[in-house]
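Before relying on records like the one below, remember that each one covers exactly one chain. Contacts with other chains, cofactors or solvent are not represented anywhere in the record.
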Amino acid sequence: MGEEIKQESAWERFDNRMGAKHPEIWKLIKWMAVGMIANVPEVGVHQLCLRGFRVLGVANLGIFTFMRSIIAPVEGYEQATVVYAFMLSTAVGYTIAFILNRKATFHADSNVALSTFLYVLLVIFVIFSNGLIVGPFVFNLIERLHMSPTLSEVLSKVLCMLLPGLYSYPINRFVIHRKKKEKVETDA
């Protein structure tokens, strides 16, 4: 009895053809597409958290009082609400991206535990660098445009999602989602 040969789907044929012609460009394109797919639920979770935390009356905790000197207070705006929403939504978006990128984009076969650990470190860095440095700066800039609060929150979130892409692709590609070197079989 012979092995059953699995037919490639149209997507697999296209993916293999593009990957053979321009492997690095194709990986970058797929990584950006996965990022856009993961950003949809990330923005949704961000907005749900903002609304939910405000309805529940989440107030500033003592650990976020330093945010008042970084972010200019806006009527109805609470720093802790935005920080919590940012942290939770970023964790959701990056989790989805990790799962999709591991096999679909990079075809990684390295140690899952090590990749997950390194990815968690990257996400922690992104959350704290964006949440405490870039985010308040971006929010203050956008606030000066005098848009509606919802539009300024969404625009701030989107800009804060785009900025880590400048450094996270190389980290994902060459550090986190590695592919083991193919062993060359030699006949002796």
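The chain has one domain: 19-176.
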